[in-house]
Design brief:
It is a single chain. The chain starts with 5 loop residues before the first strand and ends with a helix. It is 55% helix and 13% strand. It is of the alpha/beta class and 439 residues long. The protein contains 16 helices and ten strands. The model is unreliable at 1-11 (pLDDT under 50).
Length: 439
């Protein structure tokens, strides 16, 4: 192993001095730490390659479900969602649909009232899904609809449910799982590299992360939509009192801290519309970054304490999820290159030494990030096969654009530290029925 006090470049030995030694050591420690922290993600990828989706045991009882939908100006898509719910292979008397029309200015309310759903209007300056969801739950309990409900599904207005969705999720509830998420498929993967990148990130989450954590019998987390919560869990938290900009992750964190197991049913499939406009995608992910920073401030210490004192391994993913690792890595890279440049001037080192150090350090970090994202996308594409609805040539192209999509998280995470972020609606206009999607 080379002595850290010497850098060999073009057959010449360069003395970097004591300060340079310290910088090299710290840089090595940072890089090794990042590699260790993400090792479990690579283990998940390997596990997913060699294991098949698991099957749930048949349920002994058919449970009653509420389907909660919070919608703001979703007239183009919400009718298809409600239609897909009522077309479930499940007894209709056990299905109760509730809609919160949240600050709507279009025909969403009128469309919903023509269905069998129970519909409420909400007009408030408190904007965001979390507030609308809490409002909807309060209404359900105020009007005693909760008496006939065993668990609550959470859906977004642009979702669609496969015919066997409720039947599959009922198996999980009947097995005793209090909170359970499901497989998120995409309505519009093939539109462009932006929708494909968003869809691939969820495919990776489902097929690699959720699947592998299920294999290891570890709890996972919920993500946005497509999950149920048992009635007693809702009552434990007094409704939906999670109001960071990533209320789903905040809820998952509280489940981990309170030893509530979050399951995954990979045979229950729902469809989601991904942003296809770059501006919408950036706004959405900026909000997510801001929300994870909020959760980092509120819960990082509690999660670390739970991990250390109770060996709660579920906390590992959540700790990594809310810690701004990309920001830490690139801030350190920036500091490292500046200090190494100062050291080079003081030590009167050859200019090519500094340039070589800067290029290799930057190149290595970007290359590792690109390769990991590419390989995970490749694994997912192989595993899901025809389930990803796109021509082969597009699947190949999107393997290479996925790392670019993921790179945007670096500046967004950094911007979210300083910028005041407000909730902005994402326009949904991919209006297709469940029959057309699954054809």
């Amino acid at each position: 192993m080379e002595e850290i006090s010497k850098i060999i470049k073009m057959n010449e030995i360069v003395e970097v001095g004591k300060f340079g030694n310290v910088l090299i050591v710290i840089n090595s420690i940072v890089m090794i730490t990042l590699i260790i922290l993400y090792t479990h993600q690579h283990l998940y990828a390997l596990i997913s390659l060699f294991t098949k989706p698991t099957q749930e045991k048949e349920a002994k009882k058919l449970h009653s479900f509420a389907y909660l939908i919070c919608a703001r100006n979703e007239e183009k898509v919400i009718g298809n969602l409600i239609d897909s719910i009522y077309k479930q292979d499940y007894p209709k008397e056990l299905m109760h649909v509730f809609v919160c029309c949240d600050n709507c200015t279009d025909n969403t309310y009128d469309i919903c009232t023509k269905t069998d759903a129970v519909v409420y209007k909400r007009n408030s300056n408190l904007k965001g899904k979390s507030y609308a969801l809490d409002f909807l739950l309060n209404k359900i309990y105020e009007e005693d609809y909760d008496k006939d409900i065993d668990a609550f599904f959470i859906f977004d207005a642009d979702n669609l449910l496969s015919k066997n969705y409720t039947k599959e999720m009922n198996k999980s509830l009947d097995s005793g799982i209090k909170v359970c998420t499901s497989f998120r498929d995409s309505k519009n993967f093939a539109v462009n590299w932006i929708s494909a990148g968003s869809a691939m990130s969820f495919y990776r989450e489902c097929r690699i992360v959720h699947h592998s954590r299920k294999i290891f019998h570890l709890g996972t987390y919920v993500s946005g939509t497509g999950f149920y919560i048992a009635k007693d869990v809702i009552e434990k938290y007094g409704g939906w009192n999670f109001h960071t900009m990533v209320e789903d992750i905040e809820f998952s964190i509280n489940c981990a801290l309170d030893d509530i197991y979050v399951g995954y049913n990979e045979n229950a499939c729902f469809y989601d519309e991904q942003p296809s406009r770059l501006k919408d995608s950036l706004n959405q992910r900026l909000r997510w970054c801001k929300g994870t920073h909020q959760c980092f401030k509120l819960y990082e210490g509690k999660l670390i304490k739970k991990l250390i004192t109770k060996l709660k391994l579920t906390c590992i993913d959540l700790i990594i999820h809310i810690t701004p690792m990309p920001v830490v890595a690139f801030i350190w890279l920036f500091i490292y290159l500046i200090l190494m440049g100062i050291n080079s001037l003081v030590m009167k080192l050859p200019i090519h030494f500094y340039l070589d150090t800067a290029i290799r350090s930057t190149y290595s970090l970007f290359l590792i990030t690109f390769v990991v994202a590419f390989l995970h996308a490749l694994i997912v594409t192989i595993l899901l096969g025809k389930k990803i609805k796109a021509p082969l040539y597009k699947k190949i192209i999107y393997l290479f654009t996925f790392p670019i999509y993921m790179f945007f998280y670096i500046p967004l995470s950094f911007i979210a530290i300083f910028k005041k972020v407000t909730w902005k609606p994402i326009k949904h206009d991919y209006s297709k029925s469940i029959e057309n999607i699954e054809k």
